[in-house]
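Supplementary Text 2. Reproducibility record for the structural model of the 163-residue chain.

All settings were left at their defaults, and a single model was retained for analysis rather than an ensemble. We include the record here because the model underlies the residue-level annotations in Supplementary Table 4.
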Amino acid sequence: MIMTVLAIMAAFASAPGADARPDPTPATQAGDAAPVAQIRIFASDGRHGRRNDLVNGSSATLCVASTTGRYRLHVLSNSGGVMRGSDVRAGLAFRVRFRDASGSEQVKQMDGGEIVFEGRSPSQADCRGGVNAFLLVDSPESDILKNVAGEYADRLTLSVEPL
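Retained model, structure tokens:
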């Protein structure tokens, strides 16, 4: 049996030169503030945190918001794009499925250390409204079957920037 666990961590980002604010509020007039985006990971009990452990094929619920309504989500792999087992030479490929607030869904294979998604956020410019996006990580069956049984893991860091 192969068990995979991913630790997902969120990072806050803003436009270059903008002040980082933990809960951005929309500008009252165009040009009042630099664009800001934020991401939150929600636990199964609905509370948000900075970390979520996933088992292969499970999903994380997120809130991703941008004062511009559009954002770029970066998914960074700590292990160079594969989950590593106890034998660090062995690696398990994986893919990431992301669905944004508009319902648009994208699936990308983790090749290298980073993949990028573009998405749309709801009309609110912050994450006070709760969950609006989902992230699912899984490994293709062909990759699972060719690896030695064991535990494989990677740490993913999520960051977001407004577009």
